[in-house]
Structure formats: structure tokens, C-alpha cells
Description:
20% of the residues lie in helices and 35% in strands. It is α+β, with helices and mostly antiparallel strands. The chain has one domain.
Amino acid sequence: MKKLAIIAACLLTSALAYGQGQIDFDTTIGMPDSIVTVQSLGGAAAPSSYVAQLYGGLAADSLAPIGSPVNFFGDTEAEGAGYIIGGAVTIDGQYGGVEYFVQMHAWNPANMAESGMSDVLTIANLGGKFNETDPAANPSTLAGLQGFTIVPEPSTIALGLLGGASLLLFRRRK
């Protein structure tokens, strides 16, 4: 009986390893609602020097990076700045047909303090293979993904200076 349980567990594990859920990492599908802007550039669309990556998971509060970071499409809005055309992202070990949660994170690789993320998007029926014998179905789209703004984060030094200035101000008042 113990051998049978071990064999069943091994078969289940190997079957899950063949899962191939897929998401099409293309934000042009929901345009213009899915554009990503950069506050430090005066609200302009994110240029090709910025990157984005999908985070995903079976629960909205436990997302992990999936796929690789992808550069934004162009440098001006006419060239497609602010949008990602990254192709299909495969989610290994996860069959299609399940509810899946995704979020897009974007940042400036030259200045890691500039970053932002979208709201969590629920994909009701993840695209891809439904089991290891089915041919792959079309990947899910990011339709409904809302755009967001990449905001520069305050640096530690600036916050330290602000705190020191406030201490001096309170000391001076007494």
C-alpha cells in the first residue's frame, strides 16, 4: 500500500510538471487604458529604456515573478512607448483553465528608485494546456489591465535630511 501511495504521488508530481499555462504579455490589447507613464518625465509614456515584468500566482496576495523582464516598445507615444509587446509567457507547472492573478511591475534599470506596479488583474480562465494530452490553447490576454504611473521613490538621504531639518526647527522653537 505504501508503494502504491508513493507511485501515485510521483505520477501526480510529474503530471503537474507538464502544466503549461500561458499569458500573452501584450498591453496593446487594452489600449489606451493600459498605458504606463513616468511621473519624473512629466507624465510621458514609459520609453524603451524602462522594463516591465509580470508577477503571477494562484492567490492575489502571493505573487511571484514569471517570465523575464521586457523593455517597453518605443521611445515616443507614436512608436508605442508605454506599452509592452512581450509575447507568450509560459507558467510552468500550472495547467490552463484555472483562475490566476497577475500584476505588472515596471522600473527604470538605470535608477531602481523609479518603480511602479499595476493593480492585480484576475484572469478567470488561464490559457494554455488543460492537461498533458491536450494541444496548447491560446494564451490568456491582459485585457482589463489598467495603466499606472512609475513614481520615483524618495531616497534615504533626502528623508534623513528632512528629519534633521525638522529636529533643528523644533529645537529652535523651544
